[in-house]
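Illustration 12: Peptidase C51 domain-containing protein.
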Amino acid sequence: MLKLTIFSALCLILQSICGISALSGGTIARAADRHIDSTHWSFASSHATGRNTNKCNIFVADVLESVGADVPRRWFGFSGPIGAGEWGNPSSSYLSGNSCWNNVNSPRIGDVIGDGVHVGIVTGYRKTTSARYDMVVKNDWGYRSNQSSTRFTFWRYVC
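Figure caption equivalent — predicted structure in token form:
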């Protein structure tokens, strides 16, 4: 029992000092990619926020929660996960006020990418997985030549 306690304490110390995360970006990316072609988060789906609503933020929240990540939630009038606007805001109080999330400039697999209107998960080299109006897709959103890289914000889960 003492060995387990010491091991657990060392893991917590390493995590806080080195930023070592028990939840890898690869784990997040694989969870997102499992839903490619799913219509569960489509505009027409009744999931979570109901039919005729965008659900890219719900997709990101559902993926993150499925692997045990802490997803920031809004509580005024609507208690759901934060929207694409917050994921795309480098100064988001919901994210910057949560020690599990770091705003980063160099994206890695598993990071959340947002532009203030849409949000997805980085799942490969210049690839993201996100909920579109019709289904979950893996494509080059966020990395297209006609998209300015300065308008995208990346958040990394570090807990």
